[in-house]
Each structure stands twice: as C-alpha cells, then as structure tokens.
Amino acid sequence: MPLFGKSQKSPADVVRALKESVNALERGGEKKAEKAQEDVSKNLVLIKNMLYGTSDAEPQTDIIVAQLAQELYNSNLLLLLIQNLSKIDFEGKKDVAQVFNNILRRQIGTRSPTVEYICTKPEILFQLMAGYETQEIALNCGTMLRECARYEALAKIMLNSEDFYNFFTYVEVSTFDIASDAFSTFKELLTRHKILCAEFLETNYEKVFSHYQRLLNSENYVTRRQSLKLLGELLLDRHNFTVMTRYISNPDNLKLMMNMLKERSRNIQFEAFHVFKVFVANPNKPKPILDILLRNQEKLVEFLMKFHTDRAEDEQFNDEKAYLIRQIQELRPVPGH
Amino acid sequence: MSEFEADNSHYSIISTLGQCYNGVGVVYLAKHLPSGQMVAIKKFNMDMVKDEVNLIQHEIVLTKQLQHVNILNNLVSYVNDSEVCVVSPLMGFSSCRDLLNVHFSEGLPENAICLILRDVLEALEYIHRRGIIHRSVRANHVLLSENGRACLTGFRYSCPIIENGKWQKHIHSFPSKLVRPNLNWLSPEVLAQNLRGYNEKSDIYSFGILICELANGSEPYSEMTTTLMLTEKMKGTTPHLLDCTTIFPDDHDGHGDSALKSLLHNQAKRKFSESLHEIAALCLQQEPSERPTACQLLTHPYFRFNRKHMHLSEYLLPALPLSDKVAYNREDMESLENIRRMSDIDINSYEWDF
C-alpha cells in the first residue's frame, strides 16, 4: 500500500461503487439523491483518472484498463449512466462523456471491443440520440454520439433506426447551441462512411428527402443555410451518384433551387448556386427539367451575368458560372416535341 | 432566477455597447422583459461571415459546457433572421482593455490588478483541469462585472487537450490564421510551431503578458512589427512592469515623442510590489515547464488575501459601471439599420416562370 495518498481501488471496486451510487440516484429521495450525486461524481473522477491520468499520475496500465472496460460491460453501467445522465451534476456529465469516449476507442489489435459491445446493446445509441430532447444533457450526448459515429457498425445502427429521423427536428430547435451540435452529428452520420451513407440514401431516398425538404424550407436561417450546404456536398460526392441523378430529375427540386438563388441572403444564393449547377450540367436532362430551364432561358442568363460579380478572385466559381451561362444559352428544345 | 428563453421578443434592445470578434459581431445592452433584468446580447450577422461561422459555433457550444464564476456564461443563444444572438449577463465595467483605453492609459492600480488576476487564474485553473487551452488570454477577453468580478471570455480560439481519447502532452494544432490578432500575447512555443508543440503552460505565458498589459496600459509589443516581436520572443526577451525600478532616467529624458515621455515620466514615479514583478517574470519564462501552473500560482502569497476587504469598483474610480440608465441611442441604431439595408442586393426583380 502506498505510504501517501489514497490506496488505489481496483477497477471492480470502483465500478461497483459507481453502480451502487447511480442506482441510489435513480431511486431518488431528496436527501439521499444529493449524497448519491456526490458519490457518482467522485467515482467518475476516479475512473476518468485511471483512463487519462492526472498531472501527477500516468494513465493506468493496459491490464487495469482492460479490467475496467470488462467491468463496465458486465455491469451494464454505460447504459445506466446515460439513462441517468440528467441527474448527474454538471461536471459529472462531462466526465461520463470522457470516460465513454475513451473506452469506446479501446483497441485490441484491430478489434474494438467497446464497439462490439455497443452493437449488442443498441439501446445505448438510442438513449444517446434521445438525449437531444433534454437541454441539460444534449451537448454531452452529442460528443458521445459523434464519437460513436466514427465507427461504421454504430453509424449503421443509428442510420437504420427510426430514431434517426428525429434529427430533422433536433437540428431545428430554438436553442442555437443544441441545434448546431445536433447538426454536426447529423452531418457526421450522413457523410463519414461513404459507402454506407450512399446505400442508406438510395434505399431511403423518398423518406430522407421528404424530411430534408423541410430543412431547406426552414424558418431558421442557420438551418436553411447549413442544410443547403450539406445537400450540395452530398450531391457532388461521387459515391452518391445514383442519389444525385434522382435528385436532379425532379423538377420540384429545380424550382426550389432557382428560388433559393434569389433569396435575400447572399450565402444562401451562393450555396444554392452549387446545387443548381448540377441540374444544368446534367447531360441527360429529363424533359420537365429542360422545359423549366428553357422557359427561363433568357432570364437565367441575365441573372447569372449579374450574379455575385464581386467574387472576382474566386476563379473556380467564375469558371463554373461562365460554363453555366454557356450551357443555358445553348439549350434547345428536344426535336420532335 | 428567471428562465431565459430563446425568444427574440423577450429582449428589448436599449443601446449598442460595442463590437466583438474584430467587428463581426455587435454587442447590445438589452432588457430581458419577463424579468426586467439587464443583459448583454451579442449578435452575429451570419450572412456577413464566412470562415468565422465555425469559430462562433465552437465558442457558443464550448461556453455552454463551462460552469465557473469567473467564466462568462451564455444564458441562452438563438437564431433570429440571419443573426445568431447570444445572451449573457451584463458586465458593467466592460473589458479591461476598454478600461485601459478610456480611464487608465498608464495602467491599472495594483490593487485592481491583483483582484483581476486572481479571478483570471481561477478561470484558467478550471479550464486547464477540464482539458482546455484558452490561447487568447488578453485584456479584452477579461470582462468585469458591476460588483467587481472578473470573467474570462473569448473561447473561440481555445483548443482541447484531450484528443483521440487521450490527454495530449503536446499539442500541435496551431491556431488558424484567424487567430492573428492574438499574436502579441501568444507564447514563444505556440509561435514557433515546431515539433515540441505546446501545452496549457502557453496560457500562463499569455497570463504574464496580460499582467504587463494591465500594469502598463499599452498593448504589449504594439510598437513593434510582427517579425520583430517574433524574434524578440524567440530570443527570450520579455516585457516587464514599468515603474521606478525598471524605468531609468534616460528613458524619458531623451528626445522623442513628448506624450510618450510624459507617460514614462508618470510611470517612473510609481512602484509595483516585488511580488507582482516576480509573478510576471515567473510566467514569462522561456521554458514552459519552468512556468508555474495556474493552480500553483493561486497558492502564491500574493493571491492569498481576503476578498471581503477589497472592492474592485473602488480601485477603478473614476470609471463607473454601466447601469440601466443608459439612454436609448437612436442615431446609432439607425445607421446600423441602414448599413444592413444597403448590403441587400436587389433580386426581387426576377420572377421565375415555372
């Protein structure tokens, strides 16, 4: 036993103590809850220090960390902590996220045991996603979710769940910090794993894009701008070729973009331009798309000539704009119609 | 305590207080109508910014996850039109930089400095323990409340120490070009951008620069070119507190700018305590590991005083805190509105034919 300072508790001891205090916190009771909250925070700090080390101590050895992780799996404590997150104090909530994120990254060779564990306990993910509905824990859950989204297996569970569609509400909540955090997670889920994302978007095209439409029409400026920008990125990603082809065949989508081109906000105009260009550049324009472009041929050319003329230094933009103008000028009705 | 809601109609703007984020945002004095409480609202016109969007979001989300009496908290943040609005408690004395500019061009009195520094150290101790490096400790990021509490703000430049699930001993994420305005406060190891990287001790160096800034009144290195400042820092030359122990008669007797001479002449008459000189020197050491931590600095006898007997607002006279009696500044508001209107281009003349 060390002469100075507290003796080191074993991983099993700390996990047991933490579980007992979380259980006590869950049961409630006014006085007891306060004591339980203190105990939870204290034990969380102990676990966090084992994983990260402190200014005086190095992190624990791999063996101890392995034991700790095993205890956390066996005790089902990760889920329990997340279920009771709103009852844990402010700093404790952040410690939960730090412990979770560290354990999640654990690797044995090429295996990620925590990821495998969570695959068998997907409730953890659903609980985390639902966290966006509670102000006090939304950001904590967000950091854990984005860490989870780095792993394809976990991203897949989230994308394929009905709960994923709640993100369309979360990204639009009135508090800016939560909405923008939810958007980061949403974006991560839709872009991180290219092939998985492409498959997801293809299979669920109707559902996803009918929800997405709402974001593009949002009252909230930031939501509108962010979702338009993300749409542009999604459509221009070569993995999403099938999705793009489908998107640019729909005349309603073209109408929306043409209207966004002349929104008040310059940034929205600019982002809309990057989606609009795909419609025009498409060599096989379906008739309804071609018809709209033809009906507005002159106006579009005139409009684009005057569009963001102050971006003289942005070469790529100017090249693209010149290309679009040429394309539109050269549009001719399909013979035989 | 009343609830602050993300509803623009709950806040009535009274006047403009100034700019923030190098002019990207405007700070307003406003009244929270449900409670009658005065608050500060920062408004960022997101349509006018490009790269700063991420910094603004980063700061808002991070600040929400900090809870400390010496860190300025956000009461709520919301979107209204194309503006992101951040509501925070009103800091009656504004920033230390404003105080220096308006009332204390020769520097703050030592009692005030001492109180402010202790609060800043408390904030630094907290964020360092929580794994955050501030990277922008400077007088305009230290705000003072009406009752004399100093709060740290300006977290957009901060970076996490924990990355990839590990506590990093050396950080190599060098601040983006947007950090430019902070160069004079940054430590030599951050500026060096070499493989050794840096850690939270770089904030302690900036804290040392802050001490000199508060004591001397002027922005450190403001009279030098950036390149010269870099060379000086790499050589290990550091600023120091200007008083009778450090200003020699030659300094203010020679020829030159008379305003500067009289400034130096006045500064040469005062004397800061040895402890303050010592603390500044400790913080400004070239070798990061030799600088004390925020936690160690707080145990320095200099910072062990009884707050009850010291009132910051008394030391700050003649400066007075902002109260809710500020008149509505209509002219200001109108010119701002005009600028906003001018920036909209005329696009309504186009009607698409679907």
UniProtKB/TrEMBL annotation, chain A:
Offer one example of a GO biological process linked to this entry: intracellular signal transduction
Pfam families reported in the protein's UniProt record:
Mo25
Which terms in the Gene Ontology molecular function aspect does this entry carry? protein serine/threonine kinase activator activity
What InterPro entries would the database entry show? Answer: ARM-like, ARM-type_fold, Mo25
Return the similarity comment: Belongs to the Mo25 family.
The protein in question is named Mo25-like
Q: From what organism does this protein derive?
A: Popillia japonica (Japanese beetle)
TrEMBL record, chain B:
**InterPro entries, per the entry:** Kinase-like_dom_sf (IPR011009), Prot_kinase_dom (IPR000719), STRAD_A/B-like (IPR047173)
Keyword terms of this UniProt record:
Kinase, Transferase
A Pfam family the protein falls into: Pkinase
Know the name of this protein? Protein kinase domain
Is Kinase one of the keywords UniProt gives this record? yes
Which biological processes are named by the entry's GO terms? protein export from nucleus
> Can you give the residue ranges of the Protein kinase domain?
11-303
The entry assigns this protein to a family as follows: Belongs to the protein kinase superfamily. STE Ser/Thr protein kinase family. STE20 subfamily.
One Gene Ontology MF term = protein serine/threonine kinase activator activity
Task: Name a GO CC annotation attached to this entry.
Answer: serine/threonine protein kinase complex
Q: Gene3D superfamilies in the record, alphabetically? A: Phosphorylase Kinase, domain 1, Transferase(Phosphotransferase) domain 1
Cell cycle among keywords? no
| Organism ancestry | Eukaryota, Metazoa, Ecdysozoa, Arthropoda, Hexapoda
